[in-house]
Amino acid sequence: MSAQDPVSDPAPLTSTDPAAEPADVRFLLIDGHAMAFRAFFALPADSFTDGRGQATNAVYGFVRMLVNVVQSEQPTHVAVAFDLAGGTFRDRIYDQYKGGREETPAQFIGQIALIEQVLDALGVTWLTVEDYEADDIIATLATRTAADGGSALIVSSDRDAIQLVNDAVTLLQPVKGMTELRRMTPAAIEEKYQVPPERYPDLAALVGETADNLPGVPGVGPKTAAKWITRFGGLEGVLAHADEITGKAGQALRDHREDVERNRRMNEAVRDLDLPADLARYGLGRGDTIALGGIFDDLAFGPTIRRDIPAVFLAPGGASAAEQGTGPEGPDPADVQRPTPEQVPALLRETFADGAALDLRGSWELGEGDCDLLALASADDLAVIDLVGLDDVAERAVAGWLADASIPKVAYDTKLAAHMLAGRALEVAGWRTDLAIAEFLCRPDQRPTDLPGLALRHLQEDLAASSAAAQQELDLEGADEGAEAERWARRADAVRRLEPLLRADLASHTVEALHDELELPLAGVLGQMERTGIAVDDDVLAELDAQHAQQQTDVAESAFSHIGGDRINLGSPKQLQEVLFERLGMPRTRRTKTGYTTNAEALEDLFAQTSHPFLADLLAHRDVTKMRQIIETLRRSISPAGRIHTTFHQNIAATGRLSSNNPNLQNIPARTEEGRRIRSAFRTSEGYEALLTADYSQIEMRIMAHLSEDAGLIEAFRSGEDLHNFVASRVFDVEPDAVDPAMRSKTKAVSYGLAYGLSAFGLSRQLRISQAEATALRDGYFERFGGVRDYLRSSVEKARETGYTETILGRRRYLPDLTSDNRQRRENAERVALNSPIQGSAADIIKLAMLRVDAALREAGCTSRVLLQVHDELVVDIAPGELDAVRTIVAEGMGSAYELSVPLSVGMGVGRTWLDAAH
């Protein structure tokens, strides 16, 4: 609310709702800043982020607290009070007020504004008043509520709120984190402080308040202050009889009388601010489901917290179906058809001849898929087919319907659906829409979600809740096939209703072609790669693990020898802090909540400063431990057939790059000897003669040259000279043959740093040079390659105007923080604006290449097959006699994937193992 002056006589609460009476009011009042700070320190900031560099832990914790309190206390009205920046009248009374507080943590900055946005979406009133604190807003509303016969609940960790407690006002004080609240009634306060609530400000004036930097009487604690207040009837009586109080405490009181009087003026709550008096302003049930979903999307909150928002916050009935965008009406899931095997052919031929949305009950693990229920949804019909009980005729009908490319099909995750069906030897063709891919293309920076999450986000329907209810029914009543059929029918129907919404999104974001022509067909290629997997020799991995285990023991023993033989836990931050900073007296690293950080970057910096042998061993121990963890994960992922079937994700990396998990094959280090040795365990398949690896050379820099149209970079690539040698000779103004390794290394770091949005500070850390030298190096680079400078500058400005960046294929990444008032968020967005077009274009090109290579291999009738894609590299299983043909196919497919202004260079290698095929 806007700034207003307090009035001497506060207006009573009124109501525009004739059914509401002030005496029935149960008003929940929350100290917004106090609880937001508490939430910030209760949850790790690094674990809660919106994906754009903004921490969201305070927002998440605050919303959880609000939900919990509303559910447990069931208030009729709610208000949240916040402080304003710039101080209050109390700062004019005492210029050191709150002066001892630490600087606001950088990760907290910006979160109050986000909390206010969530409150707006929830329909919860939040208030600020210029020159006054949140305490005064709460005091005014609590006083009004009690005067009108209602009751108030105050949620605050600020002890100044104690003075407001009476028979009608209760204080809920956080005890532990955000989950446990202590109920402070008049009796509880008197028991704890030995004074009634209205006398607590007198006690605080005598004792002082460290949090507010208000010094009290030296040597006077709460017990002494309470005894004085009881004896003399309050602070006025204490001060009036100050001469009667003997001893050092009495003298201290007399010496610090002015401080006590000032403290009492400071801690007196203002109870007569001019605040809105209409009860309807504070009522619940005014939330906007769509707005709330939007802000939760921006915050990258998952489906759980969305489901946990009580209906009491939301407007009755929510938004209309049209406003919610729930998609076209359809059949009632309760009327789902469950055909017998004899009915299946006619059902598919007559009812679903024009296509269907589908969902499957099944699994996919270690290269094996399976499913037993196939749910189909059209505009008029829902059916669930039991795949286990089909006869030959019905099975052929299902197989024919699935394989018919002329029949359009929709699924949440087409690749996963194909895996499940492949377990029953069923192939699918005719995919029209993959909801997970469509959602990602339209909202690449939002956290991926499952089908229930999409339904909650776009349809405002809780599929997870209905699934839980169905499961509870199954648990109670046994295997109710009807309930299960209805459950999967609901999911298939949600897929059906989501498709037009997401197709409209694809069109509005102009990424339909990316979905239809690149990502959707690529899902089929990736699915085949996942099912094929890659052969792995477990004996090689076991031998490597044994060697690493011995190395781990050796470096640990060496580390212990440098600290007097003490066998500490080298993985314990607490023990490392004691050794590094107490016993060894090393320079302190960045301070965190749990002490001085001992992360890898900090330890490497310490080692660069000190060269201490303990640090050398500690870093070596971490490296070998990481190698063992990678090997252990790989061994655990080997299927009974001796193959690893990783899962490729198209909707994780916002740049569009593929990611891999179960296991992650992209985190095997390729630049270290130990990492390369792991690749020796990956081998060609039985019946195949070799592995071929092919990757792009300097693709990011080639894309940089293409996008920037820099004549110097283009000349470097077209001339065929060593790129980094060429660039270094220009930057350092020397002949190419005079470029030394240090020059080449520095300019290479600048080149790739620019492609990745690296700042001068980041460059200085990477090269371990001063920031001034890094800035000079970057400026020298820009002087010689002005096209790069101009491109990078214009790309950020263009993104600031449009709100997004684009790749060469039109893949968008939305960056609203480019116009943020928060410097950290704005600078993070600027770095993303620099690197996303380059990284995303590289992703586009390798995906195009995969489609071309796969199509060419099939067209040529080759048995050879692509097994892996790791960053810009493809790994191909070569069938006997096909090496030369595959070389040509891969070279042409990758080299002509996209026409840049500079040639795409492809390197290849061949060998029996992934390591041997390196080049």
From TrEMBL:
This is DNA polymerase I. Keywords: DNA damage, DNA repair, DNA replication, DNA-binding, DNA-directed DNA polymerase, Exonuclease, Hydrolase, Nuclease, Nucleotidyltransferase, Transferase. It catalyses: DNA(n) + a 2'-deoxyribonucleoside 5'-triphosphate = DNA(n+1) + diphosphate. Belongs to the DNA polymerase type-A family. The gene is polA. Its EC number is 2.7.7.7. Residues 25-285 form the 5'-3' exonuclease domain. It is an enzyme of class 2 (transferase). It comes from Brachybacterium huguangmaarense. In addition to polymerase activity, this DNA polymerase exhibits 5'-3' exonuclease activity. One of its GO terms (molecular function) is DNA-directed DNA polymerase activity. Residues 675-882 form the DNA-directed DNA polymerase family A palm domain. Residues 318-339 are annotated as: Disordered. Pfam families: 5_3_exonuc, 5_3_exonuc_N, DNA_pol_A. It comes from the Bacteria. InterPro entries: 5-3_exonucl_a-hlix_arch_N, 5-3_exonuclease, 5-3_exonuclease_C_sf, DNA-dir_DNA_pol_A_palm_dom, DNA/RNA_pol_sf, DNA_polI_H3TH, DNA_polymerase_1, DNA_polymerase_A.
